[in-house]
Amino acid sequence: MSLQELETQLRPVFLAALAGDAAAYRLFLDTISVRLRGYLRQMLARAGRMEASEAEDVLQETLLALHLSRHTYDASSPVTAWAHAIARYKLVDHLRRSGRHAGALPLEDEAHQLAGPPEGVAAEARLDLARAMAALPERTRRLIDRVKLQGATVAEAAQATGMTETAAKVAIHRGLQAMAKFLSKRRMGP
User: Fold this and answer.
1) What pLDDT score was predicted for residue 117?
2) Which of 83, 122, 155, 177 lies 20 to 30 angstroms, CA to CA, from 5?
3) Nearest-angstrom CA–CA distance, 89 and 134
4) Which residue in 142, 150, 149, 151 sits closest to 171, CA to CA?
């Protein structure tokens, strides 16, 4: 299926999902997962990574990011470009965390062939992220910043904050849950 055919199929499904249709959301996730899995496997192979489990890990991170940032989708933009851009960012983050240079990834992939999200939406998303981070306790905020934004390992972040690795993992997990809850409340609005 061509990217344009996929866009034609997915756009109304995703818009229905955004309107609250749970079946449409499941269909969107199932359909986009197939496309993104292939994309991630191909890009990881180009980076010299052949483990299928690695692509699955990045896919799961991508699906979570799609879910948490679905409110940032601009209905005037292609949903496939939006999803591919998030997948590419997650892939780059993964390669950084694993010590691989992401600069070798080609820029002419599908995500860059289509329009990305408008700058206004990106700025709003950054502001929401900053607000969600600010709502966390300082230690948790530092852990999440080091691991999820700067690409440090959990062990490195735990050592820098004087915590055990297990305690750091728990704090990061709880912090991300709190951020997701905060962002969901903001999405619902007053």
Assistant:
1) 43
2) 122
3) 23
4) 142
